[in-house]
Amino acid sequence: MPPPADIVKVAIEWPGANAQLIEMDQKRPLSSIIREVCDGWSLSGSEQFALRYADGPQLYITEQTRGEIKNGTILRLAISPGRAARQLLERIQSHGIDARLEALKELAKLSADPTFATEFINMEGIGTLAHFEMLAFTLTAFLELMDHGIVSWDLISLSFIKQIAGYVNQPMVDVSILQRSLAILESMVLNSHSLYHRVAQEITVGQLIGHLQVSNQEIQTYAIALINALFLKAPEDRRQEMASTLAQKHLRSIILNHVIRGNRPIKAEMAHQLYVLQVLTFNLLEERMMTKMDPNDQAQRDIIFELRRIAFDGENDPTGTEKRKAMYTKDYKMLGFTNHVNPAMDFTQTPPGMLALDNMLYLAKVHQDTYIRVSFCKNLLFFAANEGCNDYHPMFFTHDRAWEEFFCVCIQLLNKTWKEMRATAEDFNKVMQVVREQITRALAMKPSSLDQLKNKLRGLNYSEILRLRQSERMSQDDFQSPPIIELRERIQPEILELIKQQRLNRLCEGSCFRKLGNRRRQEKFWFCRLSLNHKVLHYGDLDESPQGEVPFELLSDKIPVSDIKSVVTGKDCPHMKEKSALKQNKEVLELAFSVLYDPDETLNFVAPNKYEYCIWTDGLCALLGREMGSDLTRSDLDTLISMEMKLRLLDLENITIPEAPPPVPKEPSSYNFTYNYS
Asked: What is its main location (predicted)?
């Protein structure tokens, strides 16, 4: 007969004594259970003790968290968090250097525990830390304590900010101290408006850029993250000034040479920070894009005159106002302006506003031959790429005027495609659709430079776009006759079974996940994989991200598949309903899923990317005999069915379906996350 749902069988350890095996009644007060355990070892003062997990992060157990205890869990009797905090404070303030160092090491570990952190902070522990020499352990503890959100960042003193900024500005400092100092300053800037101004006064951009020229990618990542934070929180009138300073310090070329073209692969966090920097930089164009031209502003009108002069240089202006006016009208018409009499009116539409005029002037001055060659095509003026992207593109770091150069490439492409389509003015929207598709397909190939982009676009001419469209249409939309539909329905179960087996095989290989609530500066991981007989989910904590498969014997926890009740995703996940759960943004919600199992337990996940999310949610659904419904499965299903149907329709004999779907990139660009700046 199974034990009642409120009874949990656990083992409790105490140094130098045999473990106690007890049945913990979850309805009893925790203090009563601790008293009983202390009596078993003849320990007095039970109020000075608490229970902690013996494995993993070894968190304290409270009335709020005791529901997470599972059958078979090993616990440890320990001094209470309040007593531990008091003892550590005393040891930190002791005169012995060795004793103080050991206390700081222990504090760095314990600070991740919210129960301990609350006690330590209530004893003015953070203020005590601020008065000591900043060692790596001290900074780690400070970060962990502040991350709990118990106290406001606004309480941080100016002297402490100066001390932390001093480590960043020093030419030679311990790597661990530098790493944590950069992370602390980033958190200060992001979490407090007043601290932004103080940090901005203490940190020199030149010194931050200097940290990008090291070989340690972690330091580079923290440096770019701090630059992004300062950029993001700067007043609007300061951002353009800051961008100019960064340009003068050659930020772009340093990132290109020391980060993008370095000898190390770009890690996910670095790629994200580069994307943030790219977006923040492009956002500076928004003001020009949303600024209408003033038709009465002579300086702005002179730019249009300059565009005409460059295009028709060498042609003598006729004498007489009327003749000159007629000639100018004809020229503006040839340049593609809608309003031939007063072309300034074309720039009163936002977007693209004045940004279009800026780009055209750049094209005319820097690529004059191209400008003269394309200026006679119809209505090129308002081509301004305004498509959203959700990933960083290395090519935008290869030129100081990367946006303008990108515009010039697009203009040349538009001119070329216009001619290939033999278009007229009425075909402008059709041509633009093709050009947008050409650019989208080329960007998806992640060209590393603008020259590579040009090469990709050369291969995507109008004929190739038509061929690709036809091929994709054949794969997705054709074969609608009843016999073909019947064949498709007959093939589909076979393909679904193959996809199911591939998903389950991936679950058997396992995946690494980041621990909830931990930032990149001190990443903690856990691994989960399905047993080879598909009957048990094994999981456990790891000290670092693994390289390859993790053996089952290293994964201490397990869940019988027979106990799993359901799988939920997104905002239905328990860990997405908690206020403290990471950052409640679209990125995390789209990657979150939870396994609900008996009696009322959950195993919470946040996938590292969309691909892993689809693999795991599909695999778990397949494991439970439910429908696999991710975008990845639908795509694989359509692709494989179309391939098999084409083979069968060609009457090829002895054709077998492949054993697994074709390999899919681990992080396809269509699944990359977006970044929210609000």
From this structure: cytoplasm
Question: What number does CATH give the domain 7-79?
Answer: 3.10.20.90
Question: What is the model's pLDDT at position 673?
Answer: 29
Q: How many CB atoms lie within 10 A of CB 95?
A: 6
User: DSSP secondary structure string, 513-557?
Assistant: EEPTT--GGG--EEEEEE-TTSSEEEEEEESS--SSPPPGGG--E
Question: Which CATH number is associated with domain 157-286?
Answer: 1.25.10.10
Query: What are the domain boundaries of the chain?
Result: 7-79, 157-286, 290-313+320-471, 495-634
d(CA 507, CA 510): 5
Cα(185)–Cα(321) distance, integer angstroms: 64
Report d(CA 268, CA 270) in Å as an integer: 5
Residues contacting residue 127 through CB under 8 Å, at least 6 positions apart:
none
What is the 3-state composition of the chain as percent helix, strand, coil, each rounded to the nearest 5? 55, 10, 35
Same topology between domain 157-286 and domain 495-634: no
Task: Domain 495-634: state its class.
Answer: mainly beta
CB distance 402 to 366 below 8 Å: no
Question: According to the model, what pLDDT value does residue 620 have?
Answer: 92
Tokens of 483: 């016999």
Give the Cα separation of 285 and 293 in Å (integer): 15
Torsion angle in degrees (nearest 10) through CA of 211, 216, 221, 223: -20
CA 119/CA 584 separation, integer angstroms: 27
Q: What's the Cα-to-Cα distance from 404 to each of 30, 358, 396, 409, 411, rounded to whole Å?
A: 66, 9, 10, 9, 11
Dihedral, CA of residue 506, residue 507, residue 512 and residue 518, to nearest 10: 130
Output Rg (C-alpha) for the chain, integer angstroms: 32
Q: Which two tokens stand for residue 232?
A: 């993001």
Q: What pTM did the predictor assign?
A: 0.62
Q: What is the pLDDT of residue 316?
A: 57
DSSP string over 343-354:
GGGGGGSTTTHH
- Cis? peptide before 265, omega within 30° of 0: no
Residue 651's pLDDT is: 43
Angle of the 462-476 helix axis to the 402-420 helix axis, nearest 10: 80
Look at residue 314 in the predicted model and tell me its pLDDT. 52
Pairwise CA distance, residues 587 & 203, whole Å: 31
pLDDT of 199 reads: 94
Placement of tokens 């990618």 in the chain: 217
Q: For residue 480, what pLDDT is reported?
A: 59
3 state SS for 419-460 = HHCCCCHHHHHHHHHHHHHHHHHHHHCCCCCHHHHHHHHHCC
Rounded-to-integer distance, Cα 255 and Cα 240, Å:
19
> Residue 85: left (phi > 0), alpha (psi -120 to 50), or beta?
alpha
The predicted structure's pLDDT at residue 575: 82
**What is the mean pLDDT for each group of 10 consecutive residues in the chain (678 residues)?**
75 93 92 94 94 89 91 93 93 83 88 90 85 78 86 86 90 88 93 90 87 92 94 87 87 92 87 90 86 88 87 65 80 80 85 86 86 57 48 88 89 88 83 90 91 93 86 61 72 86 91 71 78 92 80 89 90 72 63 87 88 90 83 75 66 39 38 30
User: How far, in Å, CA of 671 to CA of 514, rounded?
Assistant: 18
